[in-house]
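Let us practice reading a record.
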Amino acid sequence: MENFILTQDNADSLWKLMASLYPIHRTLVNRGFQKSMEIIGREIPLRITKVPSGTKVWDWVVPDAWEVKEAYIEDMRGNRLVDFHKNNLHLAAYSVAFRGKVTRDELMKHLIWSDALPDAIPYAYEYYTHNWKFSIAKMDLSRLKDPEYTVVIDVDKKPGEMWLGDCLLPGETKQEIVLSTYLCHPSLANDSLSGVVCGVEIFKALSQIRQRRFSYRLLIVPETVGCIAYLATHEDWIPKIEGGYVLTCCGDKGPVTYKKSYFASSLIDRAALHVLQKCRGDRSFRVQEFSPEGSDERQFNAPGVRVPFGSLMRTPYAEYAEYHTSKDDLSVVNPENLLDTVDVLLQILRVLDNNVTYKNKYRGEPFLSKHGLHIPFITTKDAGFLNQVIIQETDGRQDILSIADK
């Protein structure tokens, strides 16, 4: 695979897609998720697999669709204190329908706020409970002075279809490198919309590269249950996966962070570490060991699947202040950081794609002059030394990535 040079056009493309997707209200199964996938489908040839609600996917079940008509809290004078239509993070995803009056004490049991960011609205969800919750900025709690409030949650929960998107770029081999990202968070820029737009831009770049040894697949799914649904409905595909990376939190100002796969020293781990340690000069980076906490790298590394999957981020989830709040807006990310993340991934994929194992056809050290391969050591020391390295190391037992690391 040849190198790909990124330009300002790539940065502009990333930002345009980010800005168009950011305002849309998305969750596991809803029209907003589908609309977002349709927008992405204008950028890359996205195939959609539709899995009906109620479908058993291994130990999980695909949830119903959940649409919000309106949701608000009013005081006794009819002042609307919290309104979903002003910020779609106000209502916890998959809250059940409710309409009625509640006391202040009862309302407080259904409110979520952030002590760390008193002016932020937290992101919350009630996917697998029969409950309702509102998220509110802590500083707005002082407005709740009445003894009673009107609560309206008008939602439509009914069977639908979970949309799972993938884009395949065939290569010389059917073995695949997979990039996976998730789209189910509403109006959160860094987690994980940044991963989606980076994945799309990477695949636009890969499509322009003439020769690809591996095949490459981009997955865009709802987090956790969506990834599990894709794996469960494509079990015959799993043995074709060489490995892959989850993309999330790709646009903030922090240094690039790589989280290793469960296997720690797999080919995909070695390629990522090689690029970060040896190909980016003195730029800072971080490396994390695998942990079962995190995103969909859990699903690929899990028992019964056991595909080596790392995660590429900048500041990891939960480590930046704005995480899972309304503060994770477009001000947290910028085109330069997004483009830098894309560049890192393309370098990693280039290392993977060009990595081969050579087997020598000679015994002992060959007579280079006889073959016109001798390089005078005095005039070109580095080239001469490299020639000796190649002779010594290409014994069929180690790939060129191992030799390069040596």
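A brief commentary: The chain has a mean pLDDT of 96.
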